[in-house]
Design brief:
With 351 residues, this protein is of the alpha/beta class. The chain contains 10 helices and 14 strands. The strands form 3 sheets. The protein has a 6-stranded parallel sheet with strand order 11-10-9-12-13-14, sandwiched between helices. Helix 2 crosses helix 10. GO terms for molecular function: oxidoreductase activity.
Length: 351
């Protein structure tokens, strides 16, 4: 099992031989065929400075049988594979089924290992026509995008964000979604899902190459805002498209602080860092009752920005997909998300 050491900011990795958990009544043994090496935990603060992170580490350390303050975190939670054995109470899966899912962090297991033992409802059937690599590569970002748009942004639900102008007016304006950094893997998934659910979409990018990639997705966009251009302003672009009404949902797809791994890649490959709009500009783009969904765990708002949110009756939501896997109350919704994502992948809605 491959495990990353968080204390070294993922600068080192360790390969350890560990015993698999026993197969319980509701468990399934899965032979891993593909795994996505991604972890949202690199953006967390150090244990000594962040009490919330310390509590999470202590929980994972107890699972791994360690009493140290720093623990080794499993590398890769997004997996696809074949069911090799099932517990006696498992009813939805059978030996030989192809499955895809995400390993909850509190299991202490890595998708880089040959086998994992998960609960029956942690995975769903993988449809025909979808490869193991494609399933494992898209499921993590697709779950995040689904949660951000449908459950946090209320797009496509009963509490929809549509705002329609009177029929006799010059145009009809329906809810607009702004995806910051649409060329990222999460950003491209957000664009495809938002278009499928009927939203009007804007996106931002940091270079002309990113703009070309976004255009290649084939998703109709109102505008692509290049943040690296001096004459481009996120606020002015949003106001121009919405008649100064603002956008309903803004989704920030990256953390403001790059990890040590990201910094090394930028330095070695000579990549330009992503250009981020200021928090004031993001809030200024929101409509009345708008929602800002962010992946930034260390977000801090100054009193002027907080007051601006208050005056717009707007809200900020934090996107942490692992919370849905760690919460038993969301298990049914999580199963629905996984099954719906696989249907969208096999039909080509999500690519």
């Amino acid at each position: 099992m491959s495990i990353f050491d968080k204390a070294s900011l993922i600068s080192e990795s360790y390969v350890l031989q560990v015993e698999l958990p026993e197969l319980e009544r509701n468990s399934v043994l899965i032979q891993v065929k593909a795994c996505s090496l991604s972890s949202w935990l690199h953006c967390c603060s150090s244990v000594d400075k962040d009490p919330a992170t310390a509590i999470l580490y202590q929980t994972i350390s107890k699972i791994n049988g360690s009493s140290k303050k720093t623990c080794k975190l499993p590398a890769g939670q997004d997996i696809s594979g074949v069911v090799m054995a099932v517990g006696e109470d498992v009813t939805t899966l059978a030996k030989g089924d192809y499955v895809v899912g995400i390993i909850p962090l509190d299991y202490g297991q890595s998708g880089c290992s040959d086998f994992v033992v998960l609960q029956e409802f942690d995975v769903v059937h993988m449809p025909d026509g979808v490869s193991f690599v494609d399933a494992a590569g898209c499921v993590g970002d697709a779950v995040k995008a689904y949660i951000a748009l449908h459950y946090m942004g209320r797009l496509g639900g009963s509490d929809d964000t549509e705002l329609r102008v009177r029929p006799n007016s010059r145009s009809e304006w329906v809810g607009i979604v702004m995806v910051l950094h649409g060329a990222t893997s999460l950003g491209s998934t957000l664009l495809q899902l938002a278009h499928h659910w009927g939203a009007r979409i804007m996106a931002s990018c940091s270079s002309s190459d990113e703009k070309t990639y976004i255009q290649s997705l084939g998703v109709p966009l109102l505008q692509i805002v290049e943040l690296n251009e001096k004459n481009q302003s996120l606020k002015s672009a949003c106001n121009a498209e919405t008649g100064n009404l603002g956008v309903n949902i803004i989704i920030d797809t990256i953390s403001s602080q790059p990890t040590q791994m990201d910094s090394n890649i930028i330095e070695d490959e000579k990549f330009e860092p992503l250009v981020r709009p200021s928090k004031h500009d993001i809030i200024s783009c929101l409509a009345v009752g708008g929602r800002w969904v962010t992946c930034e765990p260390n977000l801090q708002l100054d009193p002027p920005n907080s007051k601006l949110l208050f005056l717009r009756c707007a809200s900020v939501g934090f996107l942490c997909e692992q919370a849905w896997m760690l919460s038993h109350a969301q298990q049914g919704r999580y199963q629905h998300i996984l099954m719906d994502i696989m249907r969208k992948v096999v039909t080509g809605i999500v690519r």
